[in-house]
Amino acid sequence: MKGKTEMRRIRHLLIGLTLATLGAGSAAMASPVAMATNMTGKPQYRASGASWKPLGVLTRLSPGDSVKCGPGQEAVVMMFVNGVRFRVASNSTGTVGPNSVRGAELMAGAGGATIRVAKAMTGLDTDPFLARAGLSHQRLDKSSPGIMTAGTTTFTWPALEDAASYTFTLFDQHDNVVWSVRTNQTSADYPSDLTPLVSKRPYVWKLSGFGESGKPVVSAPWGIITFLTTDDQNQLAADINALNAQLAADPSDLTPLTLEVERYAQDGVFEGAISTLEDVRLNGQPGIQDSLADHYAMVSHMAVMLAANAAKKDSADSGDQY
Hints:
The chain is built from seven helices and 17 strands. By secondary structure, it is an alpha+beta fold. It has a domain of 82 residues: Sandwich (Immunoglobulin-like), CATH 2.60.40. The strands form four sheets. It has a five-stranded antiparallel sheet, with helices on one face.
């Protein structure tokens, strides 16, 4: 019964997400200077003069915002300017300033990767949608978090069961069809006479398979890819590895894992960002599902729709009813 109630909530929230993405929108926070990266319990936050709201991991905070922790609660806030973190302890309230949190405890110094990622977040303005997107995306290359080397023109995909031919389609962030090809192979070359694909921008790919009779097969995978230069790939890998090392040194502190999300997003690698948000260690953390939906929305309307359709299909397969 509980599972069915949750699925109904997901469906209704996804409908809200779709409407918001297609035009309703929501006001974003002004000039965020910090972000919640780790917490215990369910702390709250509020902007000056506003009402208290649940604080979530990855929630952006602006100067003057307050973070309140009740009994047994705790929140860690990281400043964008230098990666320094402050702990708001149980039964206390912290007030965010331009480069510190008044009323909070200064934590140990941040590592080099943490500082680099944090500084690049200065001025970022994101406001998560209240929804949970479907976890349906796949990777063209299982060994890569959605990254292709800039200049690569050959696309290869896994064979689909019962498929004799395929249609492979690539969409940009505005939902335009950049390229579509029909072939009986599991690879195709991007035409040289088309506009070159841009680095550090996510593209949605969608694969449709057809049987000998021309009837579509059941499976229709999709995913997100981003083109990066070799230098950018190496720097991204170095930062992710450094953050993983910090996480391994103190598994109880999820700050490095949340920063991995941001680091991937800085290079437009949303497959990596979304996959990290789906990490079991972040499962159940306040704000994670909101941020997951937000990252789908930052890719494109197409990504939102595909995720919503996957959630509806999962719900139908489970036998849940309105």
